[in-house]
């Protein structure tokens, strides 16, 4: 039975009624079904889904809807099907600090439609937006940034910048990527859709040079700040499809971490022309992941070495995917 009293009402967790081990199987099956839609990659085996150590309380970011009723402004979620508001006093997939803040500000707000709370897992930093009239309660809001530590490295994250919601699994993803790349220290790595620079920074000590490509101004500013003491990183602000189409430098390895809708067609065209020796693709949407993978592998240009589902989002239908590709030897 689902542990959450709001299960089925808020629709944030779709699979809480399913045994966790079976959730992992379903995520693999969903990915397999998408891969089978493309003949040139339908033969590829999918690894077992890497579980999350935390089945609950793993998320570091909550976006609550504020709804005014009975002279109170309540925080909660909107059911994705009925569009009805559901007041939430505790969300079981949010970390403890988010739930602590939720309990302290519930029914104490006015003139607001949404509240975003982001809290660090590895320190006491947090950000609550927008600016709320809560200072008398000891809760500060309206901050521009918060800080999170990954592998003992501090990352500044602006309110407008993307950051993974499951920090422990993000760290596991770094291990998986390092193992596949087998870096010698002489490689040029391009980190496309680089965000605040997590992969660029954590991999920088293992390569000759890293180029990060990111179109979000706030994320690029965060990345530059986070890498201020690292000499072999350069961050380029621009759309990945524009930057790669005009790329005139060497690329040994390429990391692609696009948004949910996948890569722009011009990104895939550019990658096929640039022919990096190894590619890592990260995705949170199996449908678009399979599409992009199939395009990259047309005419056997790249070989798929491994596909691993990584459960970033327990109790939901969503999953992170990591794929490893290598350039076909005849094209080297």
Gist of the model:
The chain is α/β, with parallel strands linked by helices and about 325 residues long.
Task: Please tell me about this protein's structure.
This protein is α/β, with parallel strands linked by helices and 332 residues long. The protein folds into two domains: 201 residues, Rossmann fold; 98 residues, OB fold (Dihydrolipoamide Acetyltransferase, E2P), CATH 2.40.50.1070. It is 26% helix and 25% strand. The protein has eight helices and 14 strands. The strands form three sheets. Strands 10-9-8-11-12-14-13 form a seven-stranded mixed sheet, with helices on both faces. Strands 3-2-1-4-5 form a five-stranded antiparallel sheet, covered by helices on one side. Strands 6-7 form a two-stranded antiparallel sheet. Helix 1 runs parallel beside helix 8.
Quaternary organisation of the protein chains: single chain
**Global structural class:** alpha/beta
The total tally of domains equals 2
CATH class designation of the largest domain: Alpha Beta
CATH superfamily of the largest domain: Vaccinia Virus protein VP39
Strand content: 25-35%
Rg for CA atoms:
21 Å
| Helical content band | 25-40%
Largest beta sheet: strand ordering: 10-9-8-11-12-14-13
Ranges where pLDDT stays below 50 over 5 or more residues in a row are none
| Sheet having the most strands | 7 strands, mixed
Average pLDDT number: 94
């Amino acid at each position: 039975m689902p542990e959450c009293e709001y299960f089925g009402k808020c629709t944030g967790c779709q699979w809480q009624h399913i045994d966790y081990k079976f959730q992992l199987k379903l995520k693999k099956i969903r990915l397999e079904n998408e891969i089978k839609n493309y003949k040139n990659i339908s033969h590829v085996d999918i690894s077992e889904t890497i579980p999350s150590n935390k089945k609950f309380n793993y998320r570091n970011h909550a976006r609550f809807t504020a709804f005014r009723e009975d002279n109170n402004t309540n925080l909660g979620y909107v059911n994705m099907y009925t569009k009805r508001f559901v007041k939430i006093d505790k969300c079981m997939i949010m970390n403890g600090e988010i739930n602590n803040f939720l309990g302290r500000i519930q029914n104490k707000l006015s003139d607001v439609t949404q509240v975003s709370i982001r809290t660090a897992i590895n320190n006491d930093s947090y950000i609550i937006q927008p600016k709320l009239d809560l200072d008398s309660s000891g809760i500060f809001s309206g901050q521009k940034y918060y800080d999170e530590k990954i592998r003992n490295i501090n990352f500044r994250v602006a309110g407008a910048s993307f950051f993974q919601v499951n920090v422990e699994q993000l760290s596991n993803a770094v291990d998986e990527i390092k193992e596949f790349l087998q870096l010698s220290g002489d490689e040029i790595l391009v980190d496309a859709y680089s965000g605040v620079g997590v992969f660029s920074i954590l991999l920088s000590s293992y390569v000759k040079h890293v180029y990060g490509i990111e179109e979000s101004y706030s994320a690029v500013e965060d990345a530059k700040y986070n890498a201020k003491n690292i000499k072999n990183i350069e961050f380029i602000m621009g759309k990945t499809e524009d930057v790669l189409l005009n790329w005139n430098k060497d690329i040994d390895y390429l990391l692609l971490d696009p948004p949910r809708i996948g890569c722009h067609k011009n990104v895939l065209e550019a990658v096929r022309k640039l022919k990096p020796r190894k590619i890592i693709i990260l995705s949170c949407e199996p449908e678009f992941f399979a599409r992009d993978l199939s395009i990259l592998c047309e005419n056997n240009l790249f070989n798929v070495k491994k596909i691993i589902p990584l459960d970033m989002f327990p109790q939901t239908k969503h999953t992170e995917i990591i794929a490893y590709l290598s350039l076909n030897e005849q094209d080297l």
